[in-house]
Each structure stands twice: as structure tokens, then as C-alpha cells.
Amino acid sequence: MTIDDIENKERQKLIAARLKAGFETVHEAAEVTGYSAKYLRGMERGKFPLTPKSAGRLAVVYGCGISDLIDH
Q1: pLDDT beyond 80 at 39
Q2: 49 near 69, Cβ under 8 Å?
Q3: What residues have CB less than 8 Å from 7, skipping those under 6 apart?
């Protein structure tokens, strides 16, 4: 497995968690998370890193565990 494979899998997990939480768009999620839609979209596309702080915040809002957002 390459670094790109891992990054793609993490991006897919982030999008899947958002959708499972009922946020169809990043704009909907942005209203609740306090992050901008641009920042959330950037994380989902791999342009911005998913930091421990942002992963924790998203996990709370999305109603999932941090492990649902990132691979170890």
C-alpha cells in the first residue's frame, strides 16, 4: 500500500462519515462544525491536513470515533 492509497482511503472515510452523519454537503457540515466550507472541502480533497484537533471536532459533530476518520 502506498502513501497515496492511504491518503485516498482517509479522504473517503472523511466523506463517508460526513454523509453518514446526514450532511450532504460541506456547506451543511460547515455550519455545525464552525469550519469554513473551503477548509472542510480542502480536508476531504487532501489539500489541508486532518489534524488531531480537527479530527476530534469532526468526530464529535459527525457522531463517530476518530478511528472512523483516519487510518492508523
Answers
A1: yes
A2: no
A3: 46
